Amino acid sequence: MLPMKSGALSLPRNLLLLAICLPAVTRAQQTSPSPSPTPTLYSQETISGLRKLQQAAFTSDYALRQVAHLCNNIGPRLSGSPQAQKAVEYVAAEMKALGLDVRIEKVMVPHWVRGEETAALLEFPGQAPDTTQKLVLTALGGSVATPANGVTAEVVVVKDFEELQTLPAETVRGNIVVFNHAYDKAMAAQGRGGEAYGDAVAYRSDAPSAAARMGAVAALIRSVGSADYRLPHTGQTKYSEDAPKIPAGALAAEDAELVGNLAAQGKLRMRLVLTPQQFADVESFNVVADLKGSTDPEQVVIVSGHLDSWDLGTGAIDDAAGVAVSMETLNLVKKAGLRPRRTLRMIAWMNEENGLRGGTTYAQDHKTEMPNHFAAIETDGGAGHPVGMNLKAKPEVKTWLGPIAKVLQSSGAGLLNLVEHTGADVSPMEEFGVPTFHPMQDSRFYFEYHHTAADTFDKIDPHHLQENAAVVAVMAYGLANLEQALPR
Amino acid sequence: MLPMKSGALSLPRNLLLLAICLPAVTRAQQTSPSPSPTPTLYSQETISGLRKLQQAAFTSDYALRQVAHLCNNIGPRLSGSPQAQKAVEYVAAEMKALGLDVRIEKVMVPHWVRGEETAALLEFPGQAPDTTQKLVLTALGGSVATPANGVTAEVVVVKDFEELQTLPAETVRGNIVVFNHAYDKAMAAQGRGGEAYGDAVAYRSDAPSAAARMGAVAALIRSVGSADYRLPHTGQTKYSEDAPKIPAGALAAEDAELVGNLAAQGKLRMRLVLTPQQFADVESFNVVADLKGSTDPEQVVIVSGHLDSWDLGTGAIDDAAGVAVSMETLNLVKKAGLRPRRTLRMIAWMNEENGLRGGTTYAQDHKTEMPNHFAAIETDGGAGHPVGMNLKAKPEVKTWLGPIAKVLQSSGAGLLNLVEHTGADVSPMEEFGVPTFHPMQDSRFYFEYHHTAADTFDKIDPHHLQENAAVVAVMAYGLANLEQALPR
């Protein structure tokens, strides 16, 4: 998942809006700027189909079995890895088994492979003779390597970019800079995990180049996440053109605290070994599976998640869950014997984590078809309890979706929330005017596991996963059967 | 900390008892079997000293600074390590700085050093070509090593000892046995962490020999702990005389789940590398610091914690906290200008974790003085909020301690709870009739961090640490000034 500034949950105002909009679509339209009020948005048959899908989602274990297979049997799925390729083949085969039109669409992806990663304080105040303090860390995605035997240097600790700027260049030059900038756990506990992430992730992106500009030989950030279990969080870093590329890693929260504490007492010397390798781009694929529409097959409603994952865990919440609820949507519609007006398209994106090549390549390859891309849903925020749907669309779209939200409200997921960002992979379609959607989920725990070794199958709550499948299936089927075109 | 079967918290019944006992010591004594009812247990001066110590504990940062130094500046303190030796020197120097009579008492301790520890599934159902699944694990303390390049074998998964016994010997022979027996998190969430630990820790102790008896080449348990953050928990294993010693480790909970899930689907092959080394016993020390009693200096009240720790984390909750509140007790008494009737003795025990040599050596070396060991307190359950004191003593001791409990009740820590086990290090004194004590603490989170890399300084809540210091200081000073001898 990429940075989101918008909060995942922000309930009271929306609840109020919903209470106004839902029971009276036509009345709401009188006050909306919608140019073409329509007498019927959804047929009775469509509404009954939505209810059927919703109920079916709550008794199906299909999505859970998909997550289990992707995580347990295939494992971590970093772009360019054999596991990512196996996942492409697996999802394509599963979709074919449902009788869908399936193809894999070529995407050239980065191929970065993690190496050894160790760090230790060799010198620190009060240490016992012949001892070091081991530090727990992980390389940031895209990091260049240290020499095989590591780099040894003094340590400079700052709390943020501003403090770094106050330091004389000679304090930084030749040293390792540690950015001890904490993820705001209090904010996350309020359900504003996305905002807390957005604040801290700036260090993951920009800290290495900021340090390199001042002559640092390596940069370490404090992990961007809320867990205090000696668990480092990886994620992609971004080297600026105007600075040397230096090795970049993320310390576990505890280790950033330790280094900060000891640096305040005296001189620290660290040995850092990070030996990742960056290879040439390799061929990979988005998996695209269509359930053809009955009356408007050229029009497409996308349901999607990303198939690649980071390599430390097995990518259960990020994002096997998103792929699984998307696969489940087509499974449920098929099993229910429903045939949408428009084409329902499942896409398992490749390379969300370290390049977004799947999303950008798709939008490019299909740009002439974008006017027929009716809507695009992506699930990439885990499988926490959903309370509704975030949407990036014209404000009046909220009103048009009222009847769908009313169905979802019966399982507590009826909120519609206008946001600036939905899913990263569908974002390249936004410039073509395609309305995009993302389930609005309980994000309180997501950032404890996100991008860590602990993003594993057991983190999926089976019932919450079913709830997410219900939200995506109902929204997708509703959009695919909307009697009118959405304003865009 | 060693296994405790008794729950750390069990409130309602004790609250009731307390309500009866506290206001009326003499009335309670009429119904107790105490042979010698006494008119005065504590002088007014003693009670006023207790209140003074309690208040002082809540504003002192001395204990917190001790934990910080032991964890951050010295680091992990496994018996036989340079850090353990440094910790001995540090605590002795700090106690001398308070003007106490300090000595270090020789203890021969095991010297086990962790090596490389990796594991991977080489073969499992559905795997991508040329891939393995990495497993997160750690060697159990005392484990023998695999060959340097590891052992590769098929995997047999059982949920408990009973299931192992149902297997034919040829199913186990030559293979790696995984015991996927889960720590009872629901029980721990009720504050019964000690009981949950007692149940699961049987596997840490006995599973390797159980598997070895049936011909296994290695044994892995599911980590004994409640955290789900891909965090393995170490701890001492116990080889039986009647079985070959085989390499023994603990998988993170997630990895035990993964192996269990995949084993149900087909054949698994694992490569396991554990290369710890067991060296000859080495000399180490208990640190003993006395604040001499004014009228009965030969009588001793012990306050203690253990100075050694496991090597994965820095041993903050297990057990720098216990050492720190014991040091703080003497600091507070000194600073308050109080002089106890009996000697207050701080002991920082060596080798609780993997041998208990400190506790057993002390009891042996001082056995002729045991009649003068008036009471012994150990804190070895972290620094969670204390609600009172567990005691292993004659039942009527509860009544005798009522006035102390009444003082502690003002900070919510007035419970007195008779138990079967208090601290491991003081337990060898019990056979000499010495009453032993351990703070009764909130244990809900203790087993998330216990024996893991995440047992670090940041896990200490400064206020809760002060509360624990208050409980220990008040109880110790009260015992040291009791006007009569406790029944024993």
| Inertia-based shape of chain A | elongated
Number of strands of chain A: 16
CATH superfamily of the largest domain in chain A: Zn peptidases
Helices of chain A, by number, come to 16
Largest protein-protein interface: A-B, 45 and 45 residues
CATH topological fold name of the largest domain in chain A: Aminopeptidase
> What is the CATH C-level name of the largest domain in chain A?
Alpha Beta
What is the total domain count of chain A? Answer: 2
CATH architecture label name of the largest domain in chain A:
3-Layer(aba) Sandwich
pLDDT < 50 runs, ≥5 residues of chain A:
1-33
Mean pLDDT of chain A: 92
Largest sheet of chain A: 8 strands, mixed
Strand content of chain A: 15-25%
Gyration radius of chain A, in Å: 24 Å
Distance linking N and C termini of chain A: 26 Å
Percent of residues in helices of chain A comes to: 25-40%
Structural class of chain A: alpha/beta
Q: In terms of quaternary structure, what is this? A: homodimer
- In spatial order, strands of the major sheet of chain A run 1-10-12-11-13-16-14-15
Describe the structure.
The structure is a homodimer of 488-residue chains. The first copy, chain A, is α/β, with parallel strands linked by helices and 488 residues long. Chain A has 2 domains: 11-111 and 280-480, Aminopeptidase; 115-275, 3-Layer(bba) Sandwich (Glucose Oxidase, domain 1), CATH 3.50.30.30. Chain A has 16 helices and 16 strands. The first copy, chain A, has helices at 11-21, 25-31, 44-57, 62-74, 82-97, 161-166, 169-172, 185-189, 193-213, 253-263, 316-335, 357-365, 397-400, 402-409, 446-449, 462-480, and strands spanning 101-113, 117-123, 133-135, 137-139, 151-158, 176-179, 218-222, 248-251, 269-274, 277-291, 296-306, 342-349, 373-378, 386-392, 415-418, 436-441. In chain A, strands 1-10-12-11-13-16-14-15 form an 8-stranded mixed beta sheet, sandwiched between helices. An 8-stranded mixed beta sheet of chain A has the order 3-2-9-5-6-7-8-4. In chain A, helix 3 (44-57) packs parallel to helix 14 (402-409), helix 3 runs antiparallel to helix 16 (462-480) and helix 14 packs antiparallel against helix 16. Chain A is elongated and about 75 Å long. Chain A starts with 10 loop residues before the first helix and ends in an 8-residue tail after the last helix. The model of chain A is unreliable at 1-33 (pLDDT under 50). Chain A binds chain B through residues 68-69, 72-75, 81-83, 85-87, 124-131, 133, 136, 227-231, 253-254, 257-258, 261-262, 265, 313-314, 448-449, 452-454, 456-459, and chain B through 68-69, 72-75, 81-83, 85-87, 124-131, 133, 136, 227-231, 253-254, 257-258, 261-262, 265, 313-314, 448-449, 452-454, 456-459.
